[in-house]
Amino acid sequence: MKLLWLIVAIIFAIAEAMTPSLTLIWFSIGALILIFLSTFIKSILIQVILFGIISVTLLIVATKIIVKKDENHQYDTNLQAIVKKSGVVRKDILPNETGIVVVENEEWSAISANNEAILENTEVEILKIEGVKLIVSKK
């Protein structure tokens, strides 16, 4: 039975190498654990059930850990580089309407963070980016 679990582990490891996500590796690890457990547990049915339980548990725990770490990740992109910087309103930003703001010689669509009117030539601070629009407030 140990040879069978080794083959299963290798198959899942090869399949994992062909996919961009970390999902099948946990089944490979589950099969490796079953190599050890099959020494003590002779029932194939119980081994298969344990393989499923161990593999799915590893997958769920690992996914939760990865997602939790990813929540704190700050994405460093060119877009995020302008957050907290200043810009100048080129076209009035009216309540519930989009205006135009120039930041570092680039024009951006922008809306007011607190839904207030911000008139042309007013200096604003970029608070965040939602889609392709800047969320700004008067400086």
UniProtKB/TrEMBL annotation:
Q: What is its main location?
A: membrane
**How does this chain sit within the bilayer?**
Multi-pass membrane protein
Q: Does the keyword Lipid biosynthesis apply?
A: no
Report the transmembrane regions from the record. Answer: 48-67
Q: Which GO terms describe its cellular component?
A: plasma membrane
Q: Which residues form the NfeD-like C-terminal domain?
A: 81-138
Where is the secretion signal located? none
The alphabetized UniProt keywords are: Membrane, Transmembrane, Transmembrane helix
Subcellular locations according to the entry = Membrane
Q: Which Gene3D superfamilies match?
A: Nucleic acid-binding proteins
- Cross-referenced PANTHER family: INNER MEMBRANE PROTEIN YBBJ
User: Know the name of this protein?
Assistant: NfeD-like C-terminal domain-containing protein
Source species:
bioreactor metagenome
